[in-house]
Amino acid sequence: MHEILIEEKILARNDEIAAQNRKALSERGVYAINIVSAPGAGKTSLIEKMAAELKALGMGFAVVEGDLEGDLDSKRIERHGIPALQITTGRACHLDAHQVSHSLPWVFEQSGIELLVIENVGNMVCPAEYDLGEEMTVMVMSAAEGDDKPLKYPAIFSASEALVINKTDLAPHTDFDIGKARLNALKVNPNLKIFETSCRTGAGIGEWARYLAGVVRHDK
Amino acid sequence: MHEMSITRTLLETVRQEMEKADIKTLRSVRIRVGELTAVEPEALRFCFEASVKGTPFEGASLEIEEPPLKGGCLTCGLVFGTTLFERTCPGCGDSSVEIAGGNELDIVSMEGV
Ligand SMILES: Nc1nc2c(ncn2[C@@H]2O[C@H](COP(=O)(O)OP(=O)(O)O)[C@@H](O)[C@H]2O)c(=O)[nH]1
Ligand SMILES: [Mg+2]
Ligand SMILES: [Zn+2]
């Protein structure tokens, strides 16, 4: 009988590829964010709304869309004059670093890009364990969900740097308590930067886009 | 469900280690799945059983350590068990506490002949 000590991360290979992605992006001066949420929280809407704000700030960006199937989301983004590439994950409920590595040659072909926005597959669980090579993970949670979401899905909130609470226009019509949602999120991750937006009214989009642009430019 | 892709990755590592050590039959694999990870030990066990059927790994057992969530105090260095994201150090009362355990997702060891 042989006992072999291994002691390594199960996802070590994914982490290695993620580190290569991060290095390649940083060498080209591209800052990457990974947007995660439950299905329908408003990731694509947020990216569409950010387009005008970032354009006004002179910040070029490209979008990689992860989806189970189809290319509806990348078509939505392209309508705003933003280059978008769809990655179809098939049965996998999350993007991994390997899939993202295949999209990087396309990203580097786009001219004047400072920011890469990766929209992950709508899922609160799986993306938490897969590093893609991003500098910032952005969690989007909508006011149509429960304000106790952070306590139910602590892994993904703990792995995020920023939280965007979207659909604030719906809050008055639901029993979603934004204050409670903030508190719960900070309980899980005291370092979270929290923003409130409505893609319907446009509220808060400017503040979020300016913060993001500041981080992207400061990071260089 | 990501437990399936995690199982696939795990078995790939196991296969490589078996080759290196010239092991023909796998007896057990020991892994560590922290309380804070987004991984369900039961789902992982299910995927493991389903994946080893009819392969050289069939009959191997999966042993799962489940380390609990821990906080570490940045002020006095105390590491303590914590629940529901309590952020106050029981040693010095400070609230500069970071996660010090519970997010492990590791392959620890394996046994075979
Ligand atoms: N009322 C309201 N609806 C929104 C808002 N943001 C997105 N939606 C709607 O929510 C649905 C899902 O949005 P989408 O951007 O596709 O979500 P994704 O799956 O996270 O990319 C769409 O019908 C959007 O029009 C918002 O701020 N307020
Ligand atoms: Mg979308
Ligand atoms: Zn202390």
Strand order of the largest sheet of chain B: 2-1-6
Give the distance, in angstroms, between the N- and C-terminal Cα atoms of chain A: 53 Å
Shape of chain A: globular
The helix content of chain A, as a percent range, equals 25-40%
CATH topology value of one domain in chain B: hypothetical protein PF0899 fold
Question: What is the CA–CA distance across the termini of chain B?
Answer: 32 Å
* Helical fraction of chain B: 25-40%
The helix count of chain B comes to 2
Q: How many individual domains of chain A?
A: 1
Give the tally of β-strands of chain B.
6
Order of helices and strands of chain A: EHEHEHEHEEHHEHEH
Mean pLDDT of chain B: 92
Strand content of chain B: 25-35%
* Largest beta-sheet details of chain B: 3 strands, mixed
Q: How many beta strands in the DSSP annotation of chain A?
A: 8
What form of chain B results from the Cα inertia axes? elongated
CATH architecture descriptor text of chain A: 3-Layer(aba) Sandwich
**Subunit organisation of the chains:** heterodimer
Question: Which CATH architecture of one domain in chain B would you pick?
Answer: 2-Layer Sandwich
What proportion of the residues of chain A form beta strands (DSSP E)? 15-25%
Folded structure, characterized:
The complex is a heterodimer of chains A (220) and B (113). Chain A has 220 residues and is α/β, with parallel strands linked by helices. Chain A has a single domain, classed as Rossmann fold (3-Layer(aba) Sandwich). Chain A is 38% helix and 22% strand. Chain A contains eight helices and eight strands. In chain A, helix 1 (12-27) packs parallel to helix 4 (97-109) and helix 2 (43-56) packs across helix 8 (205-218). Chain A is globular, with a radius of gyration of 17 Å. The model of chain A has no long low-confidence stretch (mean pLDDT 94). Chain B is of the alpha+beta class and 113 residues long. Chain B has a domain at 2-68 and 102-112: hypothetical protein PF0899 fold. Helix content of chain B is 28%, strand content 29%. Chain B has two helices and six strands. In chain B, strands 2-1-6 form a three-stranded mixed β-sheet, with helices on one face. A three-stranded antiparallel β-sheet of chain B has the order 4-3-5, with no helix packed on it. Chain B is elongated. The structure holds guanosine-5'-diphosphate, magnesium ion and zinc ion.
